[in-house]
Amino acid sequence: MKRLVIFDLDGTLLDTIADLAESTNYALAQLGFPGHEVQAYKQFVGNGVYKLFERALPEQFRNQEYILKMKELFFPHYNENGMRLTAPYPGIYNLLTSLAEKGIKIAIASNKYQHAVDVMVNNYFSEFEFTAVYGQREGVNVKPDPTVIFDILSDSGIENKTDILYVGDSGVDMQTAINAGVQSCGVTWGFRTEEELNRFSPDYIVDNPLQIAEIASSAR
Fold it and tell me: How many domains does the chain have?
């Protein structure tokens, strides 16, 4: 049995894409640039908010000056409106409850900026006890760098990597697990495709959240 399950947040526990698209399109419009369809943002997210801005901007404006302008416009809008359309995926509450009942610890490792991660976890998952909740932090490399996983292991007091399962919806997440030396589980309900997940040969792929509880209970 696993002792700790680490989750990505956006596209894994929460469907955040519509709110991310709305706030990014707002920032683009303020700068006089066209926005994008919500579906396009499923390919823009996953590597942190600055990479989101870079991908959303017109190609000739993908530079530090305009990325910082996007930040100044996006953050206030998203902080105020970022939970208007966001919701947990079906079955997530049952999954987290099942893990808690089994005595399996849970944690979050996200590339979303830390303030937004804290607000969303407090809003949607306040009844659950997380060992650690980490988003994008200044001075810490984002996933697929494994630093966030190592920080969570340190917080949890768990030293044996075989006791860990990392769950996410993207190739970035699967690569993070590989880089950290822990088992990976890809979910098919998120922002990226099963084909992308399979390129990284995850240990597991699931279509239903409760399958994660079954894997964590039986996996070696």
Answer: 2
